[in-house]
Design goal:
This protein has 96 residues and is mainly α. The protein is built from 3 helices and no strands. The chain is 82% helix and 0% strand. The radius of gyration is 25 Å and the shape is elongated. It comes from Neotabrizicola shimadae.
């Protein structure tokens, strides 16, 4: 009986390590926070370049690049928002 108990405990220990998240993987919350921070950073950078262009400190090429990256970031966020709303509406349509 003791042999079976130790075998079960050892098997459980191996299974527990197999189901735990691997080192270096991030949680969905951390990934979302990182994406939100990146979005805010992109918008802030675009605003700073636009201000610098108004004062003549930045060339027009960098202004166009900053505006394009800001537009891409906003389009990405809008697309993700639309998909989340669509998924939520699909869940609401499911019969209970």
């Amino acid at each position: 009986m003791d042999l079976n108990t130790s075998f079960a405990a050892r098997t459980y220990e191996l299974a527990r390590h197999a189901t735990s998240p691997a080192q270096g993987t991030q949680t969905p919350e951390a990934g979302f926070a990182k994406s939100a921070a990146s979005f805010a950073e992109t918008l802030a950078e675009g605003e700073n370049v636009a201000k610098a262009a108004l004062t003549g400190a930045a060339d027009p090429h960098s202004l166009v690049e900053a505006l394009a990256s800001s537009q891409l970031a906003v389009d990405t966020v809008v697309t993700v928002r639309d998909r989340v709303v669509e998924a939520y509406q699909e869940i609401l349509r499911m019969p209970v």
